[in-house]
Specification:
18 helices; 7-stranded mixed beta sheet; 6-stranded mixed beta sheet; 2 domains; alpha/beta; 474 residues; Nucleotidyltransferase, domain 5
Length: 474
């Protein structure tokens, strides 16, 4: 007996079988790339390909399965017509259509009012600004929409025929009010979007329907929500770093924290399983590494993830620093000229070799993690001794050690497939084989092979951090 966990990430998707007796075991059934497609001026997700590959994996894993659950990245969505047909392939959050839309929205509803209603960090890619771009530039298209479904909700609809909006994914949109636990009509109407197209909210642990006599369960459908479920800690206060295309650093709280500190530091409150809250900040992540490898490979250099880590280790530490949150790094495309340009603008030495480029990226990411941790401790008034790194980035031994050095904290790395495990854990809870998430975390802590990184200390780390703070505030 097993459950099927489908985890769709921004770079690839995977379908896994998860069994649970004394411990959790994952078996990869199908892994496939998630490659966006350019249509005219806009970047779209290839949702038909993602759907085909997902169904292929589910079919291969279906014999003996008790439940299916799907999680995906946040903020993106599909619009359906009155017949339930998708109006167009969902647009990628890196598409430039939301550029300039934040100011357009703030003229219609004040920035602080949006934060007080939603508790969400201000990012141009947020669903709110994607919808605003449709209201401003494609009113006729928007008028055809009979239903809005977040990305995982769309897949759940195709699996079951039921149009619902999952709680954790809805919370990422900046259109959802955690106090009322509903879509915020005032915000939506202020940008010319009808609240009537938004679905009823459903919570993690619910059973949505069935496919081929297999229950379709609702995990934390936002992948970071699922990843946080699988943090192998029995402590009430912990810091996590979900490390993948994006880095998401934060802690778990009982309620959203919506106050001046969170607003001023641009942190976010996203919903978690068991109606917890994830106080975090979305940070740039291994998108840099992915794009650098793609760029170098396309130019004839056979470069792997292991290769770039070795290159970084051989390069001079902190030679060149960038602000990884600079908007110039958001779009897809060759990364090296943008890194050089950013260094030039900041007065930093320009990287020359591949090793200097990737070392610049790793150093800058680790310094940004330290900056975020300082902000998090300021907001919560707590000190955190350990950072739990989960996701694909937990395999990056060089960056994990660098993170320990720069932050001065113990880093515990693993699990790699945190989102998939968290997805499966909520499914097992929904079918009655687990009491709660705390029980599952205790099992993970006892049974997983985790790697620990300890800081060695050194004045160079503090000097580099002081330099970084001065750069990003200049």
């Amino acid at each position: 007996m097993h459950v099927i966990a489908v985890d769709l990430g921004a770079s690839n998707g995977r379908v896994m079988k998860c069994t649970f007796e004394d411990k959790f075991n994952l078996e990869e059934v199908h892994r496939f790339p998630n490659t966006p497609i350019q249509r005219g001026k806009h970047l779209h997700w290839n949702i038909q390909q993602l759907w085909r590959e997902t169904i292929k994996g589910i079919d291969w894993a279906s014999e003996g399965a008790q439940s299916i659950g799907i999680d995906t990245w946040g903020v993106d969505f599909g619009l359906l017509d009155a017949q339930g047909n998708l109006l167009e392939d969902p647009v990628h959050y890196r598409d430039p259509r939301s550029e300039g839309m934040m100011d357009w929205v703030f003229k219609r509803i004040p920035r602080r009012e949006i934060f007080d209603k939603t508790g969400i960090q201000f990012l141009p890619a947020n669903t709110l600004y994607q919808l605003a771009s449709l209201s401003r530039r494609r009113k006729r298209f928007l008028a055809k929409a009979d239903a809005y479904l977040g990305f995982p909700d769309l897949f759940n609809y195709w699996l079951t025929g039921d149009k619902r909006g999952e709680y954790t994914h809805a919370s990422t949109t900046q259109c959802f009010n955690p106090t009322t636990q509903s879509w915020d009509a005032d915000i939506l109407e202020s940008i010319g979007v009808s609240p009537d197209i938004f679905p009823e909210i459903i919570y993690p642990g619910s059973i949505l329907g069935a496919m081929k006599n297999i229950s379709v369960s609702v995990p934390a459908c936002h992948d970071t929500g699922s990843a946080v479920v699988a943090i192998p800690s029995t402590e009430h206060d912990f810091v996590y770093l979900s490390s993948g295309t994006w880095s998401l650093m934060g802690t778990e709280t009982k309620q959203p924290i919506i106050n001046d500190r969170v607003y001023n530091e641009n942190f976010t409150n996203e919903a978690g399983a068991e109606k917890t809250n994830r106080l975090l900040r979305n940070l740039p992540g291994l998108w840099f590494e992915q794009e650098l490898i793609r760029e170098w490979t396309s130019k004839g250099s056979a470069v792997t993830h292991n290769d770039v880590a070795k290159m970084a280790a051989g390069a001079t530490p902190f030679r060149s620093i960038i602000n990884p949150a600079d908007s110039r790094f958001t779009p897809p495309g060759d990364m090296t000229p943008r890194i050089v340009e950013c260094c030039r603008d900041l007065g930093e030495p320009e990287p020359q070799s591949m090793g200097e480029h990737i070392r610049c990226v790793y150093d800058s990411l680790a310094l940004n993690y330290r900056y975020c941790l300082d902000q998090l401790e300021y907001i919560t008034g707590k000190h955190y001794d350990v950072i739990h790194v989960v996701g694909g980035g937990s395999l990056n031994t060089f960056l994990n050690q660098l993170t320990a050095e720069v932050t001065g904290r113990t880093v515990i790395a693993g699990p790699v497939e945190a989102a998939t495990l968290g997805n499966a854990i909520v499914q097992y809870k929904s079918i009655g084989l687990l009491r709660d998430i705390a029980e599952a975390r205790g099992i993970l802590k006892e049974t997983l092979e985790l790697k620990t990184y300890e800081p060695q200390g050194g004045l160079e780390w503090e000097n580099a951090y002081s330099h970084y703070r001065a750069l990003i505030k200049s």
